[in-house]
Amino acid sequence: MQPSKTITSIEIGAALKQRRRELGISQEKLAEILNVSYQQVQRYESGVNKLNVENIQLIAETLSVPITFFFSSDYEQTVAEPQSPYISVEEKSLLAYFRKIKDKNDKQMVINVARLAAKQQ
Predict the structure, then answer these.
(1) How far apart are CA 41 and CA 80, in angstroms?
(2) DSSP assignment letter at 8
(3) How many CB atoms lie within 10 A of CB 29?
(4) Could you give all domains of the chain from N- to C-terminal order, each with its CATH number?
(5) How far apart are CA 20 and CA 116, in angstroms?
(6) pTM
(7) Which of 18, 55, 59, 93 has an alpha carbon 20 to 30 Å from 8's alpha carbon atom?
(8) In the chain, pLDDT over 70 holds for what percent of residues?
(9) Buried b / exposed e along 60-84 (16+ C-beta atoms within 10 A)
(10) What distances in angstroms separate CA 80 from CA 19, 45, 63, 67, 75, one per listed residue?
(11) What DSSP assignment string belongs to 27-81?
(12) 90 vs 5, 25, 26, 78, CA distance in Å?
């Protein structure tokens, strides 16, 4: 049996950076979503700081990828959803926040607010 390769913090950081860029999210915007400084995001992406399990889960959810995305060398095959280049940064940010809402009624309220705001246009 061949031993499995250990994924390094540098490789995890590279995957994080690649996905963030694919989504068109700045380091500053990702930092805001994660509630850390943009310098911390830079340290994650460069592999200087290691990510703990909780942060990997939060980042995976924020970037819409499975946790395994960070532990695979074939990033393209593990993306949770197809890349949508026509979605704006604001839409991606809204979707990331929406996905964090756990309560079904709260999600419906956000949908209703968006629907009402769209009708006013």
Answers:
(1) 22
(2) P
(3) 19
(4) 9-119 (1.10.260.40)
(5) 31
(6) 0.58
(7) 93
(8) 83
(9) bbbbbbeeebbbeeebeebeeeeee
(10) 11, 20, 9, 10, 10
(11) HHHHHHHHTS-HHHHHHHHHTSSPPPHHHHHHHHHHTT--GGGGG-S-GGGG-SS
(12) 37, 9, 11, 24
The amino acid present at 102, given as its one-letter code, is K
Smallest CA-to-CA distance from 61 within 36, 33, 91, 38 is with: 33
Task: Look up tokens 């809204």; give the residue.
Answer: 94
> What average pLDDT does range 77-97 have in this prediction?
65
Q: Which of 38 and 120 is assigned the larger pLDDT? A: 38
Report yes or no: 30 and 58 within 8 Å, Cβ to Cβ. no
Tell me the CA distances in angstroms from 73 to 69, 76, 79, 109, one per residue in order: 8, 9, 12, 40
